[in-house]
Structures are given as C-alpha cells and as structure tokens.
C-alpha cells in the first residue's frame, strides 16, 4: 500500500513540511512519485515516522535519531554500534538527571525563601538569584 503525503501526515500526526524535512535529512527515503507527480510513501515509512516521533518524545534529538537509524539500517556490526550508541545516550541522560536534580534543589530553596506575604516590593527569590548568579551558571 502507498500513501499520499496528506494521508501519511494525518496518519503519523506530522505536517507535510516535516515529511519533506525528514526526506532532506535522510531520516526517511525519498518516496516514489505518481504519474501526476504526487509523493507516494510505502507502508514501512509509516512505521519509521512513528518511530522517529516516539523516540523524539523520549528526548532524542534528530541528530541522535539519524545515528540510531543509521545503525538500524546497516547490516554489519549492528550490535556493537547499537551498544556504543546506548552507552553514550545513557551517560547523557545521567548528566541531565544530575542537572535536573540541581535545578530542583535550587527551586526548592528559592521557594522556601519566599515569605507568606507575597505583595512586597523586594522579592527574596529575585535577590537570591541575583546574589547567586555565578552558582547558577
């Protein structure tokens, strides 16, 4: 079965420009054209686009997705390449978690500085942020 770009964009919940962008970036293969010049996407393009969208939701960048799909598309040394990719992504995630935990600690501290009276001119949160700008950066 083949899908026109309008059909696949609705089915995958992406716009037509996104499809063309994925084509230009090599994330999906350029589709064949009908006699009238319409793009016709194969069935496997649906799975691939859904995979791309889902993995983006999980926090992967398009560059990482391109690398991941490159590993998937290769026939040789797939497992070793995938292992290296996963190890690197795991380290990236751990770093983000540590950063998010620091942000959480900072936000809790700022919230605790806030007095019960919130209609005052001098905001302790702003003052703390200004005083600790080096720590934040």
From TrEMBL:
Q: Which SUPFAM superfamilies match?
A: Putative DNA-binding domain
Task: State whether keyword Repressor applies.
Answer: yes
Q: What PROSITE patterns is this protein classified in? A: HTH_MERR_1, HTH_MERR_2
GO BP annotation list: response to mercury ion
> What Gene Ontology molecular function terms does this protein carry?
DNA binding; DNA-binding transcription factor activity; mercury ion binding
Q: Where is the HTH merR-type domain?
A: 6-71
Q: Does the keyword Repressor apply?
A: yes
The record's annotation in InterPro entries points to: DNA-bd_dom_put_sf, MerR, MerR-type_HTH_dom, MerR_fam
Pfam entry (one): MerR_1
Q: What keywords are annotated for this sequence in UniProt?
A: Activator, DNA-binding, Mercuric resistance, Mercury, Metal-binding, Repressor, Transcription, Transcription regulation
Task: Summarize the protein's role.
Answer: Mediates the mercuric-dependent induction of mercury resistance operon. In the absence of mercury MerR represses transcription by binding tightly to the mer operator region; when mercury is present the dimeric complex binds a single ion and becomes a potent transcriptional activator, while remaining bound to the mer site.
Protein name, UniProt field: Mercuric resistance operon regulatory protein
Its lineage reads: Bacteria, Bacillati, Bacillota, Bacilli, Bacillales
């Amino acid at each position: 079965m083949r899908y026109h770009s309008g059909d696949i964009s609705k089915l995958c919940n992406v716009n037509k420009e996104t499809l063309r962008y994925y084509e230009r970036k090599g994330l999906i293969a350029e589709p064949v054209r009908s006699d009238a010049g319409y793009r016709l996407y194969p069935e496997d393009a649906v799975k691939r686009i859904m995979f791309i969208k889902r993995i983006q939701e999980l926090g992967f960048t398009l560059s990482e997705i391109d690398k991941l799909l490159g590993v998937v598309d290769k026939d040789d040394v797939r497992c070793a390449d995938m292992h290296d990719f996963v190890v690197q992504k795991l380290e990236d995630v751990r770093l983000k978690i540590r950063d998010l935990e620091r942000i959480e600690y900072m936000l809790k501290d700022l919230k605790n500085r806030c007095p019960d009276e919130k209609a005052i001119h001098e905001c302790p949160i702003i003052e703390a942020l200004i005083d600790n700008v080096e720590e934040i950066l």
